[in-house]
Design goal:
The protein is mainly beta. It has one domain: Maltoporin, Chain A, CATH 2.40.170.20. Helix content is 8%, strand content 46%. The strands form 6 sheets. The chain has a 20-stranded antiparallel beta sheet. A 5-stranded mixed beta sheet has the order 5-10-11-8-9. It has a 4-stranded mixed beta sheet with strand order 27-28-32-31. The chain starts with a strand and ends with a strand.
């Protein structure tokens, strides 16, 4: 029996205790053992270990994952992988469920995620907010709980020539548990200042299927409560009162509600007496909101004569809430008959992930073959509560169904591999294969009341009769004009060869062709090599090309929100539209949008490795140029006092639109960096094993080119660039430039 106890870590990590009966002793000690394990990522052409691979690979074993003290896979990787990072934004949308994680500071959708070597579906959510990964469609790593993982292999190199789209920064391959051991864990944590309570539970085990087969099942549940760090809101809540007794508009200055600043309205206006007694603790600034999620994983294998049947499946349901800004009682967005003291809208989201895979593999005439099919998808539904649609007046509901997004992916692939004698130091390992993939994307509308432009106007106060904000506050419903249901097909073929011309020098070559039904063809290639040196040292390096296909969400995402502005000619408020428009829509085309092209990359890198007994170390440099990166454009709006954009769109049959943005191939970037890793492990006699590791990552991204603002925009007198300084800063400064970490672990053996 091995007992692993994890203490409280800085930053509010959970206190965890786990007891598990190991089926067998570890293959080695810590990373020293991991470095001698066979890896399956980065090659289909033979057996390689971490130390003999020509490209950098990190192996995180299952016991390392569980010893981290975390059960969320993304958090585990952030702690243990030097070039992995993600943010915890607080925006009221899919960010609550899906962390925009990245390798080497690149976009989240420029890293390919595999499960048991098979492509995992991406999220239905598109990051359109002001957070890291804006414009991307990431893959949710947390749909695979750490408790169900046997190990994770992280390929820190471009691999599109082997795996296809998205593998620009690298590949994360999650290998599920294959043991039949009963395992359970529970953890609880909180933050030092209170709040953020988190409770996690996992339970799993397996059965043998005959002599060589198995089935492993793991369940996981998490309950996370928001850590609220909001301070009292000291702005003016209620209408001011003028000397003549007429209601006055609110002041937005902090302190205006408690007498530190003058209230709004005419000189001499006083505060409503209720300001002295109202509860000002009305906000919630939280880490992630309240989240409850549960997931189930199944992994199985069963030999059937000379053929092996294998499969895996997973299901996850995550329920979360997040909040928008507090609406003060006197704001026009409020109906004071419903919320006399204001309201804090909540956005409730349900995210469902599902995946299933089934395959056969075996040997035929000296060739190893593997045929599999994987189907998976994600659905996110939005609801709002404690809110209203002010244009419906006193009849407004306070709960709404706001719509949904869906994404699906079906992949079928066949791989053949063999070893061929060619008179070299070792046989040539070759692999060929083909793949078919069908992608789907859907947007569903919300209920009518969630986006309805109702007949009611501001009922009272200094702005009585004005048009209030339209739709449910916090998250307006998805409109029928934004509904889509689209699909595309992709086929691909690849070939790989691994050879050893002379003893100690290995060379890997790979090439891949893919055809997409929406944008055409891509060709990619890669070459990598490793040269063994005396005394345990080795040189390694690679060069290759890659690509990221524009996702269906990036091509077809559509959002329409409504607001009111004052007409400069009439002086009256009027109803207008704000659009995030698909690139193929008439409004985007009229403003210079073009069909999205795939991002293309050229990468090269090299490094020095050392493996000597208990110590392993590596230093690797990388250089990644990406052309035509897909980003959200700036918001194009008329200059102050101008109507040229509105009038231009109205003249071509698109009335009422005052703000537009769309996806575009906006920039070329260059990313450079260095990864340094070291690990040392030693036995402690009867006291178990001591494992020490440290890692450092330096990463820098710079823009090489910014696409020009379309002439259709500049002709309207709009000077906003296609990609403004805020977005440039997000790309160049949004990710950590330096990251250093270390792990000390002792596994006391009490068998």
């Amino acid at each position: 029996m091995k007992l692993i106890i994890i203490g409280l870590l800085a930053g509010g990590s959970p206190i965890a205790a786990a007891v598990a009966q190991d089926a067998a002793p570890p293959a080695g000690i810590g990373r020293a053992g991991a470095n001698n394990e066979i890896v399956v990522t980065g090659t289909r052409t033979g057996e390689r270990t971490v130390t003999t691979s020509p490209v950098p690979i990190d192996v995180l074993r299952g016991d390392d994952l569980r010893a981290s003290g975390y059960q969320e896979t993304s958090e585990v990787l952030r702690q243990l992988a030097p070039s992995f990072s993600f943010a915890n934004p607080t925006t009221p949308d899919g960010n609550t469920h899906i962390h925009s994680a990245s390798l080497r500071g690149l976009s989240p959708d420029e890293t390919l995620v595999l499960v048991n070597g098979k492509r995992l579906h991406g999220a239905a959510w598109v990051n359109t907010g002001g957070t890291i990964g804006k414009g991307s469609t990431p893959t949710d790593l947390n749909q695979i709980p750490a408790a169900g993982i046997g190990r994770i292999e992280i390929l820190r190199d471009g691999a599109s020539a082997q795996y296809g789209s998205d593998a620009i920064a690298g590949v994360i391959n999650i290998l599920l548990r294959t043991d039949t051991t009963l395992h359970a864990s529970a953890s609880a944590g909180t933050t030092y200042d209170g709040g953020g309570d988190t409770y996690e539970f996992s339970l799993g085990g397996g059965l043998k299927l005959g002599d060589d087969g198995f089935v492993n099942v793991t369940g996981y549940y998490r309950d996370h409560q928001a850590a609220n760090r909001a301070q009292p809101d000291t702005r003016q809540f209620y209408f001011g009162i003028s000397p003549s007794g007429t209601p006055q508009p609110l002041s937005a200055r902090y302190g205006a509600g408690i007498g530190l600043n003058p209230p709004g309205g005419t000189a001499g206006s006083g505060l409503d007496p209720r300001e002295a007694t109202v509860d000002c603790n009305v906000w919630r600034f939280a880490d992630q909101g309240d989240i409850k999620d549960g997931s189930m994983l199944v992994n199985l294998s069963k030999p059937l004569g000379d053929v092996e049947l294998y499969g895996f499946g997973g299901y996850r349901l995550s329920k979360a809430d997040s909040n928008a800004s507090f609406r003060r009682p006197g704001q026009d967005e409020n109906v004071r008959a419903i919320y006399p003291n204001g309201f804090l809208p909540f956005v409730d989201t349900d995210s469902t992930d599902y995946t299933g895979a089934l395959g056969l593999r075996g040997d035929l005439a000296g060739w190893k073959w593997d045929l599999s099919s994987v189907y998976g998808g994600n659905r996110i539904e939005y609801r709002t509560r404690d809110t209203l649609n002010a244009t419906l007046g006193v009849s407004s509901p306070t709960r709404f169904y706001n719509g949904r997004y869906g994404n699906s992916q079906w992949t079928t692939d066949l791989t053949l591999s063999n070893r061929v004698e060619a008179g070299l130091a070792a046989p040539i390992d070759i692999a060929v294969g083909a793949e078919y993939r069908r992608d789907g994307y859907r947007i569903g509308a919300g209920e009518f009341a969630s986006y309805q432009y109702g007949p009611a106007r501001v009922l009272d106060g200094p702005n009585a009769g004005a048009i209030p904000t339209i739709g449910s506050q916090g998250f307006a419903g998805i409109q029928p004009s934004d509904v889509v249901n689209v699909h595309r097909d992709a086929i691909g073929a690849f070939a790989e060869a691994g050879l050893e011309p002379v003893r100690g020098w290995t060379v890997d070559l790979a090439g891949r062709y893919e055809h997409y039904s929406d944008f055409g063809d891509t060709w990619n290639g890669q070459a990598s090599t490793r040269l063994a040196l005396p005394a345990g040292f080795a040189l390694r390096g690679s060069v290759g090309t890659g690509f990221h296909a524009p996702s269906l969400a990036q091509q077809y995402f559509s959002s329409t929100s409504s607001r009111t502005i004052v007409n400069n000619t009439t002086g009256f408020p009027e109803f207008v539209l704000v659009r995030t428009a698909p690139v193929g829509s008439p409004v985007a085309q009229a403003l210079g949008a073009q069909a999205l092209k795939p991002e293309t990359s050229t990468n090269f890198g090299g490094g020095l490795t050392y493996a000597g007994g208990r110590l392993t170390a590596s230093v690797d440099y990388y250089h990644i140029d990406i052309d035509d990166r897909i980003m959200l454009s700036s918001n194009y709006v008329d200059a102050l006092g101008s109507r040229r954009l509105r009038d231009y769109l109205a003249a071509i049959g698109i009335p009422g639109v005052t703000s537009v943005r769309y996806f575009t191939n906006a920039v070329d970037t260059r990313t450079q960096g260095v990864d340094v890793t070291a690990a040392y492990a030693t036995p402690l006699g009867g006291w178990g094993d001591l494992k020490l590791s440290a890692a450092y990552n330096y990463n820098q991204t710079r823009l090489r080119r910014i696409a020009a603002t379309p002439t259709q925009i500049t002709a309207l007198g709009i000077t906003t660039p296609l990609f403004d300084v805020v977005e440039r800063t997000r790309v160049e400064r949004g990710q950590p430039r330096d990251k250093v970490g270390s792990v000390h672990r002792t596994d006391p053996d009490i068998r």
